[in-house]
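Protocol step 4 of 6: structure prediction from sequence.
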Amino acid sequence: MKLIITQKQSSKLIKETMGVPKSVDFWVNVFISLIEDGLLMLLDGSDGSSLSFDGGEVMEKAFSLGWSPDSSGFKELPLVEPSLHINVDVVPDDMIVTGDDYIRGGNFNTQNTGLSGVKFPNGKEATVLTGGEIELTLSFPKEHFDDGSIMEFFKLDIKPNVEALLYHELTHVVEYYNRTVNSANLPSKEHVWLQAGIESPKNNIEEWDHLIFLIYLHSSFELNARISEIYGLMKGLKIKTKKEFADFLKSSRVWSYSNDLNDFNAEKYYNDITISDELKSVVEERLGKPLSNNDVKEYALSALIERWEEDYNEMSSETDSLYGTKLPKMKPSTLSSPINFFRFWEKRFNKAGNKSIRKITKLYALL
């Protein structure tokens, strides 16, 4: 027997396979519609340069767009009464370099969220995620604010980037809901790895800071969100042809990040680290003797790794105590030298980067 599905069903299956939750589509449309409503209100003479939509107002918009316990994606993300706050800035034209420059903020704050049991008029019951807040600042070049063309400018230049951001953040919310409702909202080693990196002291080695950023990028929760982000941007830019897709990838930060992970080589990364005169002077003064650049590199990186290990052990112990987890300790061989530490991450970065590249290239099937 041959199974026949429509093109729409096929796209939905492909999208889910590649990690773009279908429920995110709906809520992106809700928030984009509210942002456009807010901009129109500002044009019509609303006081100030900021607008807020409380949970009730957001749900009114959601209902108007078809929100219900029977709607597609509801079970995956039954979100109720999130709020939205929009700020609008007017900036000189030359302050805008890339699409990202139009947007600040946009994170979905889950601090005031909670799970609630709800029974709907049709008799259905569900556990919903209530609350949450998005605060977003949009920057408009002065010329478009002066001539009243901010709506047109938003739709052409800013909207695709806002959609991409919302796809990213709401994918995190889907994962947060799934972990919470399944009583598995426990910090993993990925979360503690990242937090240990954030606690790293300020230093004069840019490559260390970039390594910490790669640790963040390679985490499963961040990779899934970035696949959604690039899908949202493709959709917003209305990419249709293979050439448009190829050109789009060349300028995509997500594609660039994925290649950084895929191409990471521990030896090359270590060898390419440069030692500034300032750092060399500080280390030589501390140790009271002249050192080669390589000796300074080994000393400085070893100190950073030692601090990272201390933070990781402390945080993993606290996590185990609070949540009953048993997070693994780092092997002494991994921490024995900077190059071994880099090799530990090389395997993980390469695997994550390769996976991300494969998912991104398959997004062409959705066009």
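Step 5 (inspection) to follow. The CA atoms of residues 217 and 319 lie 22 Å apart.
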